[in-house]
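Support request, please re-run this one:
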Amino acid sequence: MNWDDLRIFLAVARAGQILGAARRLELNHATVSRRTTALEVALGTKLFRRLTTGTELTLEGERLLEVAERMEADLIVARADIADEGEAVSGTVRIGAPDGFGVAFLASRLGGLTALHPQLAIQLVPVPRSFSLSRREADIAITVERPTEGRLVAVKLVDYTLGLYASRAYAQRHGLPTGKEGLRGHRLVGYVPDLAISSSLDYADEFLPGWAACFSVSSALGQVEAVRSGAGIGILHAFIARAHDDLVPVEAVAPIRRAYWLVYHESMRPLRHIQAVAGFVQGAVEKERALFG
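Re-run finished. Output below.
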């Protein structure tokens, strides 16, 4: 059993399909399939169940995954130890973030990081979804909850506020409620509940039990634009809403607070380019902490 076979095994396990693994590895589909089968033959056991939708790890495959990830982590540490500390920070770092934080805050600031480290490539994936660090969907993830499982490093970035907002045009046409129950007489904008990436983001009932949105958008920025268009009253990130002069706060219900966390896999801790990016994001947030209040 050699590392190259385990590398292919890891890619298939993380992608959940041979074709997806082949794309990530930039190998032929047939090659990945053949090497995976050869590894199973060498070990005398089935590592994957082949399904019409992809692959699924067997119990033996789950056990090998733990071993392979430990070996991968050891290799990462060894490379970091051997690397010349005088080298420029280089490599590619993918950051997965909720779209509100990723687009409204990070995107306009990361250019400063790449200017500081010209050999560093940043991939920002700001979409309303969660990222699996164990599957290497991202190197660093910005989450709205502190992870409780896995070998992960989690650093709290900042608390942020969510509140009710309406467009000035909507307020002029329909007025604004003065209490929670008054919201029931207004058109409401919300998120798609079953697509919330975290239970902490299923917060509509905290503003109004039985919140019934007439327009739902599964994106924080999409909700902002819907409210700006006059579609109704919505629950928006205060640090985003305050940047738009055409939005006004609705004081019928007090704002609520949530938090952003910066998370990466423990095996990435020794890597200079990971630490450079993590440190930059933490510094950028700290510098503008008042923005999130």
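The CA atoms of residues 189 and 215 lie 5 Å apart. The domain at 3-77 is CATH 1.10.10.10 (Arc Repressor Mutant, subunit A).
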